[in-house]
Amino acid sequence: MGKVKVLITNNQKKIKIPTGIRLLIRKCCSAVLNEENFKGNAEISVSFVDDKSINDLNREYRDIDSSTDVLSFPLGEDGKYDLNNETNAYMLGDIVISLETATHQAEIYGHSLEREMGFLTVHSMLHLLGYDHVDNSLGEVIMREKEESILEKLGYSRETSFVNENE
To answer: Of 6, 63, 122, 162, which sits with the fewest C-beta atoms within 10 Å of its C-beta?
Structure first.
């Protein structure tokens, strides 16, 4: 694996981005590329948005009129990506995360926002690399196993990422 450039943009004002989230996003992107033996340099764009913005994107690009936690916009197909001649890096695509929904889901699932953001990033990176899932399909099982394996290596396994209720 070569160099990984992750451009992170905050396009929302509702939730303050916790310290360390940007570093976590970068680590997750690199971990997926490493796990998948990606060859060459890579560029990924990650945007934080609110629920309204992700709802608008979901409606425009997926014809689904509701908010969601994350959207992935791959720029490649069948493992082939455009090369940015200025940076000599393959442009993998865009990840859009609703910070509102991620915060809410972390509360619902009883784990940290860091675990949720890590999961959403790893999940989206796998989409950028061509993985897909359909409910109850083999593809879904493969993605879930890869997600959990990568998150465990980063220290965000399901067992260790729950919020301590005694704090």
So the answer is: 63
8 A C-beta contact, residue 161 and residue 111: yes
3 state DSSP class of 36: coil
User: Are 127 and 72 in contact, with CB atoms under 8 Å apart?
Assistant: yes
**Which tens digits make up the pLDDT trace of 37-84?**
999 999 999 999 999 999 999 999 999 999 999 999 999 888 899 999
pTM over 0.85: yes
Block residue for tokens 């082939």: 80
The candidate with the shortest Cα–Cα distance to 120, out of 155, 166, 70, 161, is 70
**Ramachandran bin of 161, using left for φ above 0, alpha for ψ from -120 to 50, beta for the remaining angles:** alpha
| 102-109 CB contacts, 8 Å cutoff, 24+ apart | 102/69, 102/70, 103/15, 105/69
99 CB-near residues (< 8 Å, 6+ apart): 12, 14, 15, 17, 48, 49, 50
Q: Which CATH number fits domain 4-153: 3.40.390.30, 3.40.190.290, 1.10.3720.10, 1.10.3430.10?
A: 3.40.390.30
